[in-house]
# Entry
Amino acid sequence: MRNILRSIGDAVIVTNTDGRISLLNPAAERLTGWAESEALEHSLDQVFRIVDEETGAALESPIARVLREGAAVRLSQRTVLIRRDGSAIPIGDTGAPIRTTTGDIIGVILIFHDQTAARAALNMTRQARAFAENIIATVREPLLVLSRDLRVVSANRAFYQLFHTNPAETLDRCIYELGNSQWDIPELRRLLEEILPRNTHFDGYEVTHDFEHIGRRTMLLNARRVQHSDEFILLAIEDITEQVRAEQRLHLHIRRLRALRTIDRAIISSLDMNTVLDILLEQVTLHLHIDAAAILLLDPYTQTLTFAAGRGFQSFPFQQMRLYTGEGYAGRVALDRRLMFIADLQETAESTSTPVLQYETFVTYCGVPLIAKGQVKGVLELFHRSRLDLDQDWFDFLETLAVQAAIAIDSIDLFETMQRSNAQIILAYEATIRGWAQALDLRDRETEGHSQRVTELTVQLARAAGLSDEQIAHIRRGALLHDIGKLGVPDAILRKPEPLTEDEWEMMRKHPNYAYSMLSPIEYLRPALDIPYCHHERWDGTGYPRGLKGEQIPLSARLFAVADVWDALLSDRPYRPRWRREEALDYIRSQAGKHFDPDVVELFLRVIGEAPHSADS
# Structure
């Protein structure tokens, strides 16, 4: 037995009933600082001196306690052994009686061990817990300290205030049991349960839940092991509900701005009423989250509202709807010039008299007048098949959309009015031009009908040359007015049957300049000046009034010159009969490169159905 006691790792001291030491094993020698041979001559109180760790007061001998109680005893957790050299070692020990076979106590065995390392670990744990408790006590955000089994060890005041709870409902409870199991989320379980075994942590884990007492909130969680501890987890909780809502409002605001921009682009890029209203209704239904919408336009003369565009309707024949101002919901909106909102149509008896509501199962209605420049342009109606309880932001955005719609309608109306006015002005100009051309032909009876014929042929050549419709329109006007400068030539010269004198020809050659002076102040006719001003210029530079040469001559004038000479050759004049077609063709060909642009001559021959060939052939 002595050999066994000497070989075990724990320190062992055996005494008789009067406290005399009979055995001190090597482990006990190391801890006490006494050799067994020396200890055998001393009492236990001399070799095994123990005191309280905190007070330093001497503790009762375990021998006395064992003999008194007749049973095994344990030392206080604050027991410190004073070694022979005066140093102190924290110990944990057990004392037990040694009995004979008859049960009599004949001695005491004392087993003890060094608790320095264990006490250090315990102190570190206490320090870590105190550190965590100090942190959670001072920060403003809710914090929890969780044990290894995820029970709440500590919670700060902010936690209790935010979640409207108390320590009795929180401490020593598993986090998954708190509230209405609000933290019992599979992914959160996984994250928390990995922190201590794997020394992991997580930040920014977002939880949205219907929390007990405070309703639906969004929390941001951060968790990590408490420093220098393998027993505790620090869980930080941040209520980011308002931040999330602010971000959602910001995103909503951005989406609505994009919707307004889309509508603006539609107004700018398209002046077609149907296209703009379709885009408008698409944005309205998308961003106001409603099932259906319609736009009714107001006729200011008959005071009636008629369907213009609709979206989201299933069966109602909106195209047939016609309401007088004051009739139905839309008519009242137009008459009163203010928004109407009905959250539940079933609560109003009037809804049965509104045609659209007899075909569709709508619950919520909203109508808003479309007003631009103080005038009601129409009504925007919104419908939803379930009840809508809306905030002020929704109505503010609706008002903004209504303003955009009114602006779009007013802009398109204004544009269409301007188009009609422009068309009427253009028609008046064209009638005036035709009147001038007819007056010129009547003044020069020998050329009656010439202006109209040469104009049509010039237009054919311009089309064959690939000119645009806008260019051809100017060419037509210039061709009709090509001789308007002759209004400045005296009748005696213009209608003289005999050949003109040189002075008379000098006067005649001024008519292109007269044309320029007459037409250039008129902005509408300025693009048509090339023919009246340049149709007597020649390809070789011998023409008048400026002696232009080659491609210096505007293309429209080069086209007209061929058509003008062709018509003149095929017409009777006082001083000669008209030429035969073949003679006229030969002359046109012969003047290519002299009077006429060769390319224009070739084009002319194709247009009138004659194959181009040289004058000598």
Summary: The mean pLDDT is 84.
